[in-house]
Prior knowledge:
Layout: H1 3-9, E1 12-15, H2 24-39, H3 45-51, H4 56-64, H5 73-91, H6 101-112, E2 116-120, H7 126-132, E3 141-143, H8 156-165, E4 172-176, H9 179-188, E5 191-195, E6 206-208, H10 214-217
Parallel strand pairs: 1-2, 1-4, 2-3, 4-5, 5-6
Helix pairs in contact: 2-5, 3-4
The structure holds 6-O-phosphono-beta-D-glucopyranose and magnesium ion.
Amino acid sequence: MDGNTNKYKLKAVIFDLDGVICFTDTYHYQAWKAIADAQGIYFDEKINNRLRGVSRMDSLDIILERSERSYSAGEKEKLARQKNEIYRDLLKKMTPEDLPQDVKATLEALKERELKVAVGSSSKNTKMILRQIGLEGFFHAVSDGTNITFSKPNPEVFLKAADMLGLQPGECLVVEDAEAGIQAAHNGGFLSAGLGAASDYEWTDYPLKRVSDILNVIK
Length: 219
Ligand code: BG6
Ligand code: MG
């Protein structure tokens, strides 16, 4: 990918939330771990990586792959509800201190450069999290689990974000920590930047060590 070409046409950055803007990915893990342990189902960080970017019910299906018995639709609904209660209790403790300084500075620098900033998250808890960390009203667009039908790797959440911004996918850079998210960006015609394990997936255009590295992509 030619960085010199891209830095002139990019007009927006669409951020994944969990594991990119803040470390709620560890709260998802803790909550699912509590559910898996209570059910006697093996669950570890490696399996957890497959849940990144994936909807709540699809995440549960991945966890239940390790179960020795099958679960009814009603049982699954109950487990998903319990997981969300544990997760939201963890979210309630979050404050603006949980917005990493590197992310805060990057968001502000992008706005100073007159780029648009958006959220593209599969989570139905997005608005609560943004409120907790002091980012309510900060983004030009928020596309999340409440306005999509298809979870990542389907590009819907990012396409809706681009649409809210009035931009084409090719004008937006997606920042992700999930393989499903990088695939979604690629499937939708977006450039992508990957953090953590997502820094070297097949479709990742820009590997990142930290979020502020995107400031080198967008000059
Ligand atoms: C994504 C997370 O952002 O949101 C997934 O990476 C999670 O792990 C998904 O399952 C749905 O989140 P929620 O908050 O609606 O259960
Ligand atoms: Mg994520």
